[in-house]
Design a protein that fits this description.
The protein has a 5-stranded mixed β-sheet. The protein has a domain of 114 residues: Histidine kinase-like ATPase, C-terminal domain (Heat Shock Protein 90, 2-Layer Sandwich). The longest helix has 94 residues. The protein is elongated. It is an alpha+beta fold. α1 runs antiparallel to α2 and α3 packs parallel to α4. Helices cover 64% and strands 14% of the residues. The chain starts with 5 loop residues before the first helix and ends in an 8-residue tail after the last strand.
Length: 266
């Protein structure tokens, strides 16, 4: 067998080494390009997610402003127009009852009208966002519970724990309105004799409304289900979570949770 000359053998070895080195370099380049492309895709996805999050937050901010503006306008309308009209009616009715002082039905109508005027003024104040700027959420909830106690149709057990953080006024108002709706639902639909209200300034802040009423199926469609969906949507506007636990015949628990990082975010 003929052997290759020494020079040719060296050239063959060098060729093999060069080819191997070239393949390694090309492989390394391909790997680097793939990693760079993947990193670029990850950055793009992260940027896209950030843009979407900013857009979602902007949408929530606009919706909060719209809710705030609507509530303020409704409160102003109640105070400036409807409240004044009721006051005029009250004055006219007062003159009529003065002419017939012993007319029991007229006196009863007068009492109903006085109650209506009081409730309209209370509602007007509760819809005023500016009023919540310097008012604690716990104070507003306490006042509402006292109002329900005076009605006398249900026992109200209120407990507030912890130190209230500096909630923005719009978030306090929306959360308070959600609480009012939950409490009114108990009065109107639950057939309860007792309702527990818990405001715990923990981490997260929790607001719980629990009753011993008839309960319902949260998965069922209808007014109750739609009302829950609306409450959850409004809770989302202020960065809160809304959950419900209800069983037929065993009462209902409605819970709102607000994370620490959303307490001071407008």
């Amino acid at each position: 067998m003929l052997e290759a000359p020494p020079n040719e053998a060296v050239e063959l070895v060098l060729t093999v080494l060069f080819g191997t080195l070239l393949m390694l370099v090309l492989s390394a380049v391909v790997v680097v390009l793939m990693v760079a492309n993947r990193n670029r895709q990850n950055r793009h996805r992260a940027q896209l997610a950030e843009v979407r999050a900013q857009h979602a937050e902007e949408v929530r901010r606009v919706e909060r402003e719209m809710v705030q503006q609507t509530l303020t306008e409704v409160g102003r309308e109640l105070h400036d127009n409807i409240g004044q009209l009721l006051t005029v009616v009250r004055m006219g009715l007062g003159k009529l009852t003065a002419q017939v002082p012993n007319d029991a039905p007229a006196q009863q109508v007068k009492e109903y009208l006085d109650t209506t005027i009081t409730e309209v003024r209370r509602l007007s104040r509760s819809l005023n966002v500016d009023r919540f700027a310097d008012r604690a959420l716990g104070d507003a909830i306490t006042e509402e519970c006292e109002r329900v106690r005076r009605i006398g149709s249900v026992e109200v057990d209120l407990r507030i724990t912890g130190t209230e953080p500096a909630f923005p006024a719009d978030r306090k108002l929306v959360l308070f309105r959600l609480f009012q709706e939950a409490l009114n639902n108990v009065l109107k639909h639950a057939k309860a004799t007792r309702v527990e209200v818990r405001l715990d300034h923990l981490d997260p802040t929790q607001l719980v409304v629990r009753d011993n009423g008839v309960g319902f199926d949260p998965q069922a469609t209808g007014a109750a289900g739609q009302g829950l969906v609306n409450m959850q949507r409004r809770a989302t506007l202020i960065g809160a979570r809304c959950s419900i636990d209800s069983t037929l015949g065993k009462g209902t628990e409605l819970r709102f949770e607000l994370d620490p990082d959303t307490k001071t975010t407008v």
